[in-house]
Structures are given as structure tokens and as C-alpha cells.
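Annual report, structural modelling task.

Input specification for the adenosine-5'-diphosphate-glucose complex:
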Amino acid sequence: MTEPRIIIVSNRLPVTVSHAGGSIDVKPSSGGLVTAMRAVVSDYHASWIGWTGTDGEVKREWLAPAAAGINCDLFPVVLTPEQVAKFYFGFSNEIIWPLFHDLQSSCNFDPSYWNTYVDVNETYADVVSEVAQPEDIIWVHDYHLALVASSLRRRGIRSRIAFFQHIPFPSLDIFSKLPWRKQVLEALLEHDLIGFQTPRDSRNFVQCCRALTTVKAARDGEAFYMHRPGQRSNVVTEPIGIDFEEFANHAASTGVLQETHLLRAALPGMRIVLGVDRLDYTKGIPERLRAFENLLENHPELHRTVVLVQIVVPSREDVPRYRALRVEIEQLVSRINGRFTHTGWVPIHFVYRSLERAQLVAHYRAADVALVTPLKDGMNLVAKEFCAAQVDCTGVLVLSEFAGAASQMKEALLVNPNDIQGVAESLHLALMLDPRERRRRMQRLRRTVRRENVHRWSESFLAQLQPYLTNRKLQPIGQPEDPDRLVIAV
Ligand code: ADQ
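The model returned the following structure:
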């Protein structure tokens, strides 16, 4: 029997199309989901369905060179300008994104967003039903597409469907604020397999289902069986990883080593503290800048010896809140630099653009400390990429306890990103840490990141679909023999 094909469905394709001045530009997309999935598509016979980021025309043949490059067929979803406004900028970015990152006061529960969200999920389901064969595995990604599986089920599609949530899943009291909470949960329960980044996210989801739907939940270790007559799904925790070998080998390459020397030579005698983020208010960039300011305030002996290199990749620039964040960051950088700069020493170097992979890896290698302090984050791949690139094991990771990565990366210095003084103290500790202790911590972190890599993540996640028969109305194989053995609790 041939291997089933994996149909990846995500909001964005791994390529972005733009129509600039009458010509067509096709570029790689950025962001954590795309980075991770691009690394694993070649492990499978895969096709990828998603939007290309434009509301203009898209022809499949324009995507062919990119598809050949990642060894995966690409199928574009076409959205109208109104759909982009209400589905992407509206429902996804003004409701789900802030709510699921515990920022409910930032939500705009505009009722017109929901209808467009339903329509656009139907549009994705239209493309899936054209592309997928019954034996294919359909793998839906993230909160933009919570309703695709239920639309496919209504069309009678009985293929195996998995869902992975890259961002956090909030607690019941926060999730309950969503006016369409029941519809979203009911739709998610149409998947055979539902994966989350951390045990806390899985528990939150199950607790919401138990409180707001009629489903019964049974626990077995860290997995949950969700069942009601004629329907069953498994909920699992599967923390996403990175392509460790690719990052580590790249970091050890001559090209990156040269780039690293150039970076260090440009900052002679300096200890380098590094921040790397997509522009987003969940990443805690202003709080981090204030923590660095606090360090300089309380430790004048560090003046002229340490710099913060903050790299920000532009994101969602059409959204006023993101534009305002950029201005806030620029003003803070300028104020702090104005306050502390001496001739020959500028404390904060702010880079606002996407970097080539080699340059990014060189920054990871050159850094003495990575300051990864999101206010809340599903996982955070930057923390893992930094460790993979630390081939000399000389760097220290300071990591927010609210990043999903914190549940795996215990040898980092864990901080509360809202505690400006606490972050400054941990940063000081990181800079002072004895080289042997740095090495010990980094070696352990690298072992974890190597073991829990992105290939293992996708294999292990998809393997949990195996107990299911293609026709999900049949009893799944591998159902626990003695359900009483399971703890019915969350
Ligand atoms: P993101 O919120 O996009 O992902 P993250 O996990 O940090 O966040 O990934 C960002 C990616 O962008 C990294 O791979 C990084 O290398 C890249 N990047 C960042 N700055 C860059 C720059 N200046 N130039 C080039 N590349 C840059 C979402 C969730 C996360 C989750 C991922 C994967 O919000 O919590 O970890 O999905 O599941």
C-alpha cells in the first residue's frame, strides 16, 4: 500500500505573492508555523493548501518553482479584500489572537466578523475537498481554520483529520468570553486528533469542552479521550520543535562563522544580549527594553561593556495596533539610547527587517545571552533556534515562564516578563554566570532541543492518528479495553 498523502491546511502558504508595479513577486513567508512545517513537508508525500497573502489574482503555476524547492504541491486559496479584512484582520487578529494570549481587553467582538469567518472556513474546505482523496490525512493548522473539519464532515468526508494549535489555548474563564465559544468547540471536536503545545493548553481545552459541550472526557496520562455517541477525538500534547541538525550544521558552517566574526568585530569587547521576534504585542518587546534600561540604571559598571541587539521582523503592518507598537518600540529605543549612549557605545541596536537565515544564525552564535521574554507564547521557536546555534555552548538563555518552551527548557533562566526588575536581575545573573555553569546548562538545553526536534514532533503527532480507521463512524481500533481504568478528570 502506498503511504497516504498529507494535506496540510494553514492560513498562509509557505510563499507570499505580491503584485508590485504590475509584476508578480513570490517570496518565502515568515513566522513560526511556516518555518516549522517547511522543515517537515519533505518527510511526507505532502500537499499544502493556504492563502498567499494577496487579494489579487494567483495562478498555480506562479507557485511551481517554490513548490519544487520544498518538494510539496501548493494549492492557493483565494480571498476577497472584504474576506481578508473580516476573517484575517478581524476575527483572527482582533478576536482569537488577543483572547488566546489572555489579552481579552484588546478584543473587538464585532459580530460581522463571525459570518465571514464561517464563509472563509467554507472556502478553505472547498479547496480541501477538491484536492483530498479519501485515504489522505488532512492536517489543519491553527485557530484561523477551526471550522474546516466540521464543514468537511457535513460534506460527508470521512478522511482522518488532525488539528494542531500553535498558539496557547486559554483557560475556561477567558475562553468563555468568546460569543461563538460553543460553535468553535463543537467544530474542533470534529477532528480525530487535536494537538496542543503544552499540557496546560490541553487541559484548558478539555475543561472548556466539559463545561460548554456535552462531550465526556477521559484522561490517560497526558492524553484525553473525548467521546459522545458516534464521535470520538483524542487530545494530545505535542510540543513543536525545530530542525536542530539544520540549525546546528548551519551554525558550524564557514559562512556563518565568518558572519559571526564580522558581527563581533563590529562590537569589539562587548557582551551581546540578543532579542529576535516577529513584531507582536505578545512578544513583550517594550517590557524587555525597559528591563535592559533597568539593568543599565542599576549596574553602571556594565556601561560600555554590553549591548542589546533587538531584531524585529515586520508583521501585520496594516493593523493600527502593530503600527503603534512599532512606534512605541522606536521611541523607547531612542529614549534609552539618548539616556545612556557615550561616544563609541550605543547600548541598543534596533534592526527592523527580516534577516537571511545565515545572518540570523550568526546573530544566535555571536550572542552571549538570548533574551526571549514573550508575555505569552504557544511555544517560541527562537529560544530553540538560539540553543541549536550555540555550538560552542557559551551562551545563556533567559526565557519567559509564559512561553510554551519553558515547560521543556528548565535549564534556561526562567523569568516573569512583567517583572521588569526581575528580568533585569536575571539578565545580570546571565552575564555573570560562570563559564562552566553556562556550558552545563547549554549542553542540557541542546540535548532537549535535539531530541524533541520538529521531525520527531510531526511523526509522533501523526502516529497518534493510526488507531483510527478511515471511516470514523466505525469504532476506532486501540480504544482502551477497560474504560474504567481511565481517570475521568481534568
Ligand atoms: P510565531 O508567533 O511566528 O509562531 P516563533 O515561534 O517565535 O513565533 O517563530 C518565529 C520564527 O520567525 C522563527 O522561526 C524565527 O527564526 C523567525 N524570525 C524571527 N525574527 C526573524 C528575523 N528578523 N528574520 C528572519 N526570521 C525571523 C507561532 C506561535 C509560536 C509557535 C510557532 C510554531 O505564536 O508560539 O512557537 O507558531 O508553532
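DSSP finds 17 helices and 17 strands in the chain.
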